[in-house]
Amino acid sequence: MTDAKGDATEGSAGPMMAADGTPLKKSLARALRMQKMRALMLIAPLLLFVLVTFIAPIADMLFRSVENDIVSDTMPRTTAVLADWDGQGMPPETAFEAAYFDLYIAAERKLHTRLGTRLNYEQTGASSLFRKSGRGLDDIGEVYQDQFEDLDEGWDEAMPWAELMGDPEWLSEQAAWTKGARQPEFILRDGIADLLPRTAEQYEAFALYLQDEDNKSPLDEEPWSAVHTALYEDLAAGDLSGYSGPRADMLVAADALVDSPDFETVSFARGFEDIDEDWADPEIWRTIKLYSPEMTPGYFLNSVDMQLTPEGVEMRPDNQRIYMLLFKRTIFMSMVITCSCILLAYPVAYILANLPARKANLLMILVLLPFWTSLLVRTSAWKVMLQQQGVINDVLVWLGLVADDSRLAMINNQFGTIVAMTHILLPFMILPMYSVMSTIPHTYVRAAKSLGATDWTTFWRVYFPQSIPGIGAGSILVFILSIGYYITPEIVGGTTGTFISNRIAYHISSSLNWGLAAALGTILLAVVLILYWAYDRIVGIDNVKLG
Amino acid sequence: MKLTKTLLATTALTVAAGAVAAQDMADSMTLVSWGGAYQASQDKAYAQPYAEMHPDVTISWDESSNEAVAKLRAMNEAGNITWDLVDVVASDAIRLCDEGLAMEYDPDELLAAAPDGTKASDDFGDLIVSDCYIPQIVYSTTVGYRTDLVGDTPPTEICALFDLDTYPGKRSLEKRPINNMEWALYCDGVAKAEIYDVLETPEGQDQALAKLDTIKDQVVWWSAGADTPQLLADGEVVMGSTYNGRLFSVIEEQDQPVGMLWDMQVFDLDGWIIPTGLSDEALARVKDFLYFATDTQRLADQAAYISYGPARESSAPLVGEHAELGIAMAPHMPTDPRNASNTLLYNYEFWADYRDDIDAKFQAWLAQ
């Protein structure tokens, strides 16, 4: 490139031309671009592989730490009503009405318990409240269903409903449908949505659910009781005595029934309270309102021992704070493990690098041997060594250094975790150190000595600075591995030696609170990146060598 | 069930009909269980006899039950269910049912009636704790102790756990609030019937933790079922909680100096769930297998290999002897009347609600 530029500026008769007549500069740029493209094509399979199998799942997992659309998806009407509620006292009757219809459909689709599980993370008791409500909602609708049915058996049958609500063309198509074929999608009759808006909405939801999820025909199934409830509401709100469409006699009679003083009604708020008195407590409504948005900072707040409340963000009660402690402990212990790895690995790597090849190879096998042994076996071996009736304590008692009744507690605490993890991660420190040290020429040390330096000065001023890249590489490896370690702390950590990853594992596999696990994981990732950045600023990442 | 009945009828009638049935049902099945002695007992009592009756069916086992909930959720999200039948504890079954990951079923339609004609729903009774759950066995969490380390008066009551004066030394308890909180309250003088009412309140939770605090520095916390038997065998602890089947194996099979308590044993269940989203063929096969594997005789057979009580009432009289040791198994069943004089049934509804909350407090308490 510089050559071409030089030639072009030096030449006085315009730009230099390539053989095909294009300017050399352009032609060269194109050739370089082609080269880059070719290189990119070569790594494309790997790049795609990494994107698909690594970056995308991680991004998806991390996104769960803020994702919260389950509340507004499952209870769209309720969250809309609650948006206008100030959170003081009980919510209005319209909120109960919206919750009734939302939960009714959710219960039919078996989604209400999922929402209950989600809200239970924020408010204890939500899980059983929603499970119970799914079963109890029918009690409200049955009041209306029974009365309509007493008036006219037709309200208990599928066909009258389908004729009242469905488009005539759709009706004939649906009647011709046979099991196994695709069902013609339900269409509302013209004008019915203006006449009976709530009923039309509920019936449509019912019919579509039946067709899509149950694969049954709306012509065979009587609608669920929420449709009857909606019909009552429409009839009570409007006057239908002039209606003359299909099933006019039934509808007009029902309208007259609803207007009569004998018609029994039930308030939604009352109905909910009958299911469970927790619905009469504004707390659950505040929680629903608070977690209505599609994104929530709730999981992140939880993972730093805070919580979202209607009054704003506040610290969790003292007896529930745990994550900050675990984060600090994880980082502190990872540093201790890294330091002890450096101290143990340095002399080993030095000997390995300075022994004759044959002996060095033998030693190398000893270093690598643990790699070929199962992690669980190595960890359990430490259990046998360190426990109170274990090998080390037995030896100490036998030597008389420790009394039999005051054996040392060396496991199920921080000490056990540090020992076991140092042992397990040691090869990751030795190998980079060794590969760096074996490239340090002996001549430097000899030169320093011949110039009169003492052994210590030679080591500290000449040898050590050259081995730092190995220490850096090993430290980064060991630190990052240990910060996410899980099995060893779980087995030998007891209560004081466990890491944040043990809680992440608990939330992933046991409590199923993947949002919180994702938030904890994201924070851990951020901490590692910050430490990496700090390392780069202080030591310099160019100073890291794996060989 | 209609399908299963027709299929059973046709296979019984003609070989040709059997060939038709084979087409309608998948010819392989993946069962998920816990591995170890428990899975072996299921294999011997259910899977091998079934495979003998249906030589064309291959049954494979996956030892993933301890992470089944998370894995099923991941499979469901990926839209690729590779398991046909999953063995889980009841609390996991309730969660899987809540999440829509397990299929709801009708006991009387899916499961065989007892030999005397009792409907399956009555034979299993209250043990069907979730609409998705098909219980197999009743197990209990109880306490084992070293007979040589407890002096001349071996413990007879659960509260020996908290009695450091009479029984000094370490104890092992499970690293979770469930069971421990109940025992702590019980030994702090709360009546058995009121335990869960008390535990609902923050004061009650504090009370339980305060009781546990009295032995906290003498406790080794376990998270795997094999830990306590190992700790007892090593003499690392004087007593510890674990599952009754593990203690049976330590005492009867390995002949260790260990004894066990039945007092205040906490009953829990283990059983099957059918994942949602199975293909019609796979589902037909699973239903056919379940009808066989959960009948009265099969549940009783399992007790010949492991000391867990069958979940059907009608199976209890059929429990025989241990297949290898030749000892009568009935006295080793947690449900045996002599063992079940003072028991606690795990309250699923309560723990589904309070698990997250109490676990946060419990873990914070542990970490202090």
UniProtKB/TrEMBL annotation, chain A:
<feature type="transmembrane region" description="Helical">
    <location>
        <begin position="514"/>
        <end position="535"/>
    </location>
</feature>
<comment type="similarity">
    <text>Belongs to the binding-protein-dependent transport system permease family. CysTW subfamily.</text>
</comment>
<dbReference type="InterPro" id="IPR000515">
    <property type="entry name" value="MetI-like"/>
</dbReference>
<keyword id="KW-0472">Membrane</keyword>
<feature type="domain" description="ABC transmembrane type-1">
    <location>
        <begin position="327"/>
        <end position="535"/>
    </location>
</feature>
<keyword id="KW-0813">Transport</keyword>
<dbReference type="InterPro" id="IPR035906">
    <property type="entry name" value="MetI-like_sf"/>
</dbReference>
<dbReference type="Pfam" id="PF00528">
    <property type="entry name" value="BPD_transp_1"/>
</dbReference>
<keyword id="KW-1133">Transmembrane helix</keyword>
<feature type="transmembrane region" description="Helical">
    <location>
        <begin position="39"/>
        <end position="59"/>
    </location>
</feature>
<dbReference type="GO" id="GO:0055085">
    <property type="term" value="P:transmembrane transport"/>
</dbReference>
<feature type="transmembrane region" description="Helical">
    <location>
        <begin position="331"/>
        <end position="353"/>
    </location>
</feature>
<keyword id="KW-1003">Cell membrane</keyword>
<feature type="transmembrane region" description="Helical">
    <location>
        <begin position="468"/>
        <end position="487"/>
    </location>
</feature>
<dbReference type="GO" id="GO:0005886">
    <property type="term" value="C:plasma membrane"/>
</dbReference>
<protein>
    <submittedName>
        <fullName>Putative spermidine/putrescine transport system permease protein</fullName>
    </submittedName>
</protein>
<feature type="transmembrane region" description="Helical">
    <location>
        <begin position="415"/>
        <end position="436"/>
    </location>
</feature>
<feature type="transmembrane region" description="Helical">
    <location>
        <begin position="360"/>
        <end position="377"/>
    </location>
</feature>
<keyword id="KW-0812">Transmembrane</keyword>
Automatic annotation (TrEMBL), chain B:
<keyword id="KW-0732">Signal</keyword>
<dbReference type="Pfam" id="PF13416">
    <property type="entry name" value="SBP_bac_8"/>
</dbReference>
<dbReference type="InterPro" id="IPR006059">
    <property type="entry name" value="SBP"/>
</dbReference>
<protein>
    <submittedName>
        <fullName>Putative spermidine/putrescine transport system substrate-binding protein</fullName>
    </submittedName>
</protein>
<feature type="signal peptide">
    <location>
        <begin position="1"/>
        <end position="21"/>
    </location>
</feature>
